[in-house]
């Protein structure tokens, strides 16, 4: 083989290698969890390979209370301002360690599982002699939590143990963690918008990632995809999450947990869960193609109407680059992406289309229209909505409240936001 042929052959091998070797962004995350109602029954929606924290973790989140029982020793609780505080734990407590150790042995044995060793959901830190001696301050419980995490990881090498970079444990420990110990990083500081790089929140998060990489390669993120003050109005999250996933790959994050609406119905959750699952395997996928594929399969007659409207929301959120609120009002949604006239036209068109539907598709569309009746009501309830003809607008409000009353026939459609928020009570308060 002459030199020219060698060069050509070498170039060909390089091209082939690039074609068969996935990019870092196309590499699946090792952990892929969706806390969404659709992921509670993933097979029904063609979702494969996702995790569910209720089934895939031995202990998840701020749930140490599940281990210690209803009447544990008071020695497990933190000393705050000189008194026992039952809302927080002492992570140098020998009794707390014993509870955790015995519970893992009794219930999990040798089968590998993941465990969260995370303080109660507040910023209080134990100030007992042991905790202060190990290095805890009034604002940082990291030394004590890392010590207990390390002891458990060493005791149970077949399991994985996670701290959380959150509240009193935001900063990493000064010493490397065992290879089977890692961290869950909250992404709340990163503004939820498409171009998220140039702001203080992102730079703060990026610095935290780099600091934790010094002590562990096992990095997961706690991500979000919902307005937790409004489960029922549209929330176009997919293009934004796609860009965030690419960034996570670039910095070596290996797991993603997406905090959605849990067991509560939330609008567009079916298509969003389907696409998010695909993105966690390959963040380079074509989001628009997946959205249209989903609606063509599960909403064969009405899907084009829904897909067109949903993708228009996604594109507007990307183009305007507004921050989408995690906890926001209907006015903030309107400012970010939700055009009231377009939404009303979409609802009316879909409602008209419903008459020609049957079976599962009709049920799904009826569920969607019921949930969106909340949005129609809220848009009519914003300042200035009734300035032209208040009596006519009020009649519309009452119409959508009556439609919203159908929520009792929609699985999971009980609340309209994260905090206890029964729709029955909402309807009662606003009905006339």
Give a written overview of the molecule.
This protein is of the alpha/beta class. The chain folds into two domains: 24-308, TIM Barrel (Alpha-Beta Barrel), CATH 3.20.20; 358-430. It has 16 helices and nine strands. It has helices at residues 3-20, 53-56, 65-68, 94-107, 129-134, 142-155, 200-213, 238-250, 269-281, 287-298, 303-320, 330-336, 340-354, 359-380, 390-404, 423-430, and strands at residues 31-35, 57-59, 77-80, 83-89, 114-116, 160-165, 181-186, 219-224, 255-259. Strands 1-9-8-7-6-5-2 form a seven-stranded parallel β-sheet. Helix 9 (269-281) crosses helix 10, helix 13 runs antiparallel to helix 14 (359-380) and helix 14 runs antiparallel to helix 15 (390-404). The longest helix is centred in the last third of the chain and has 22 residues, at 359-380. The model is unreliable at 3-22 (pLDDT under 50).
The helix/strand order is HEHEHEEHEHHEEHEHEHHHHHHHH
Indicate the radius of gyration in whole angstroms: 25 Å
CATH hierarchy, class of the largest domain: Alpha Beta
Overall 3D form = globular
Number of discrete domains: 2
Biggest sheet strand line-up: 1-9-8-7-6-5-2
Please report the distance between the alpha carbons of the first and last residues.
89 Å
What composes the largest sheet? 7 strands, parallel
Q: Which regions are unreliable across 5 or more consecutive residues at pLDDT < 50?
A: 3-22
**Overall helicity:** 40-55%
Q: How many separate helices?
A: 16
Portion of residues in beta strands equals 5-15%
Query: How many beta-strand runs?
Result: 9
